[in-house]
Write a structure and sequence with these properties.
heterodimer, A: 1157 residues, two-stranded antiparallel ribbon, B: mainly alpha, 57% helix, Armadillo-type protein (chain A), mRNA splicing (chain A), nucleus (chain A)
Chain lengths: 1157, 87
Amino acid sequence: MSAPNSPRLVDSFTAPKEILQEFADLAEEENVDPFAETASKRQIAARQSDYHNRRFSRVAQESADAFKPVEDGMEVEGGYKEAMRLARLEQEEARVRRAIEEKERQDREEGKMKMDLDKTPPRAELEDVAMELAAAKELANSRDATSGTNRKRRWDVPEPADENVDPNKTDKNEWSKEALEASAPKKRRSRWDATPAEGAVGETPKKSRWDQAAVIPETPMTQIIMNAPGIMQEDKHNRYLSDEELDAILPATGYAIVTPPPGYAPMVAPRKLMGAPVTEVGGFHIQEGSDAAAVAAAAGLAPELPTEIPGVGSLAFFKAEDAQYFAKILKEEDETELSVDEMKERKIMRLLLKIKNGTPPVRKTALRQITDKAREFGAGPLFDKILPLLMERTLEDQERHLLVKVIDRVLYKLDDLVRPYVHKILVVIEPLLIDEDYYARVEGREIISNLSKAAGLAHMISTMRPDIDHADEYVRNTTARAFSVVASALGIPSLLPFLKAVCRSKKSWQARHTGIRIVQQIAIMMGCAVLPHLRNLVACIAHGLQDEQQKVRTMTALGLAALAEAAAPYGIESFDEVLKPLWLGIRLHRGKGLAAFLKAIGFIIPLMDPEYASYYTKEVTVILIREFQTSDEEMKKIVLKVVKQCAATEGVTPQYIKQDILPDFFRAFWVRRMALDRRNYRQVVETTVELAQKAGVSEIVGRVVNELKDEAEPYRKMVMETITKVVAMLGASDIDERLEVRLVDGIIYSFQEQTTEDQVMLDGFGTVVNALGIRVKPYLTQIVSTVLWRLNNKSAKVRQQAADLTTRLAVVIKQCGEDQLLSKLGLVLFEQLGEEYPDTLGSIIAAEGAIANVVGMTQMNPPVKDLLPRMTPILRNRHEKVQEASINLIGRIADRGAEFVPAREWMRICFELLDLLKAHKKGIRRAAVNSFGYIAKSLGPQDVLSVLLTNLRVQERQSRVCSTVAIAIVAETCGPFTCIPAILNEYRTAELNVRTGCLKALTFVFEYIGPQSAYYCDSVVTMLEDALTDRDLVHRQTASVIVKHIALGVAGMGCEDSMMHLMNLVWPNCFETSPHVIGAVMDAIEAMRVCLGPGVLLSYVLQGLFHPARKVREVYWRVYNALYLGASDAMVPFYPDLGELSEGQNVYDRHPMQMFL
Amino acid sequence: MSSELRYTANTQLEHLHARYTGTGHADLTKYDWITHQHRDTLTSIVGHPSLLSYLALADGEAIGRTKFEMTERMLQPCGPPPKKDED
């Protein structure tokens, strides 16, 4: 760019704006991290649904070990009773909360809420609510008093963060809480009187919550999830600045710290403090000490994260969150000042960090260490460190996998020491059971199953029982799944009494619901293993069908469906007692409940005897037909499925299906709308195909065939797919003449009218025409003219489809004897070989190939001698599909009609084929290599061989390898005597690649010719001598492979002398260390065992079995072991006589060998 | 095994060998090796009926008796293991 007033230069120019812009954009893009998006995807929490993430709001509690003897009259902390009480309290709270919400909603509806929300609501209302709350607390409290246990504080229960609840009310709420505390029997420090220790001096008006957290006394119930939603806002980005940080930022002078006004109490939502008790766990880090780096790291101020940690070594990666967790081991400490427990803690943290972030070898050793020392560390310190890590929000799959692995290993070691931690572990592991990743689910099951084996059934039940009627559906769901794992680990019978009790629980429907769900999950998980207990399981849940709660009824039906599915095809007698309620139920219920009932029926009917099945199907059909009209998608799917299941049972007659089901079925489901939703589409097609099994082809095809001319393409496709499947399965013999006309007509129409290119129409056309066979003759002229017309269409896709159709039709056209049609098609396709779209060209060549295949090389029109020269240039096409189609065509011509083509043309093709050896697709390379064989067969091997041998000089490895294979194939087809001399001659070339190539070719030759090797082994011995004594490793390796193949080929053919010679040359190579070489040498030695016999080999091996050098011994023992495993029995006579080594009690003579008659 | 080979297919071969009785390794003692040889010999005789009957004939015993004795001898064919006093 020139300055504004400088003389304008004629030839100065700048780039166009858009180009400059493009560069600017590029430069900007450089700063963008292209993996930023995937990084968040890797995080499990980020990609999971809200439902999955509810796991962060769960609370774990210590579960007492009831089996531990109670010492000093101390009461067991956190026992079953306690857990139950807490669960009940929680439910009560949830109920009250719901009541409040309900009331507010009502008020709003009634128009009472006219005032602004932040104004005080009427006093009476407030008092109402407060009274109710207080009453609830009182209730819970009185239960306490009667039970006489120590009360636990429940600060960590997140209370409704409802903005509608006004401060007045919270006051009362607080008050009632305080009242509770006052009445609580145990004396304990309240949060209110715990003044922050350092708060008085450097206090800023905004009190940091970090400071307060430190003084919270240990609470028995620890929330192991530090990053629960409420606490999330205190992450490093938007938390308050601490006093230290403020001190660091602001100048020391010029600022005064204002004392808070009298009577000011910091506004802190009390429950949010509850992340704090786990401070020592690491996530919620208290900044103590003076180590600036650790402080900065924890606060996220230090941008660069270390990958070298003292005492840990280098790590694969290190995240900002890790800095929080592992802050304690990030800084240098004087270890002498630490207590034993602190040392232990640091040690665990280091090992965990190594496992989580380390490189594979580091991880492996750390994992072994933590496993070995598990009992030494103890369950408490271990799980206090592991479990919070697992609940970290930024956890990624790999980390989770590793941590779960740690738990698994540690569990084995700790055994019953884990008892107090069962609930905590469950809270962390249960979410894995509903993970979308299959392997996560398997891992979860594994852990829970090991856990239940370690802790025992009684403890598992007492730990999980409180969660069974938890207020949160998520908790109940995961608990049910965990219980099913316990059942599979400890056996269904041991859990049955408990299940019976839970399923009949009178106290809450949630318990019944969960109990039944456990049974459902057991069925899903254990499959046919439920059969021995089927009657008991059904009896457990049967009464649920008449439960007054709709959800329980639905779940019962689903459970029965799962049981029936698992038991199929056995066990109908176990379902006897539920048949009546089920079939009565479908007349009583509507909606979701009905859907579940129908589902259960659908799975039970296939188990029945034919006559019962028929009867019950008739009973259910009325309802099914009524529900055909439903607009509910879920119901539609279930109805379709049930129809499919009923139709598949033996007792249901074709007559019944034709008369009673088909008319309504087609009216309801064969409508255009069904084709639009992918899942409905599939379900309808499947069900119709199932119905066709009973009703017959013509019944079904006759009903839908007219729809082939429907104006909606997706619908036509659905029809076509159904017809394809039905015809492919049942054939076309059932189709009468009139239907045949309509069918072919409809197919041609829909084929012509299709606008989207996919396989459905093509497959349908091909299947139907092939099924009709000779019957399509009258329509062939029409079909072929359609094809011919479409071959000249201006759209490449249409031409391609026409060619593909030709490929499928060729056989049928030949069957019908319409040879002149074929030759016409062949000619038109031949003219189309100039096609420029490679996909289309590929299809055209394939079609030409299909025609050549059915017509034969002699009758082929265009004649082969014209066709092949036309193909030669096409071989240069780089497109895979073209390459594959042409190589197949050429190979077939070479195989069957090579004599029609002059030798010069074949040689030209040979040179082109060499290029195909570089193809990526294995099929192409294989076809090319085989073609060499065919060509060599017709031309004689000399010319082809020289082409191939010359090709050994090229640089590219793949091409050389393929040439060697081709040489071997030529040798196989034309006889080894034609090739081996040429190869041996070529071996004299002083070029490494060529010599290796020759050796490689010989390996394949001897592999292919097998026992024929006996005639040739003497002629190659001298060459092998040379190769086996070469300095080059690869030479010796390849020569060993040749020796292997020869030795295996000539075993038992009397070539022992030359083999012995080769053995002597191979043997010294047994000390090679390069893996491929030693592998080849070992194989050759094994082959020698087969050829020469183990006795000879043993005499070689005996020399070094007790050699003073370990390296020698190791190798010789490896050979000995291979020998021993291969022929231990045959070695018996060859063992040396070691009687002279006998000493003392040990007599080494083998007396049985010395006996004779 | 040398360290170069530690991560190759040969490790598997080694492990595979170690899973079978009768295979050896670089630190196998004379006693162990010969014991295996004896057991193999006895097994071979018991496993080949013709060989067994030949030995029974040479011994002047019943075939069943010879078989039984052979089988019994497999327990400690070369006597009790020598005491480890060398190192």
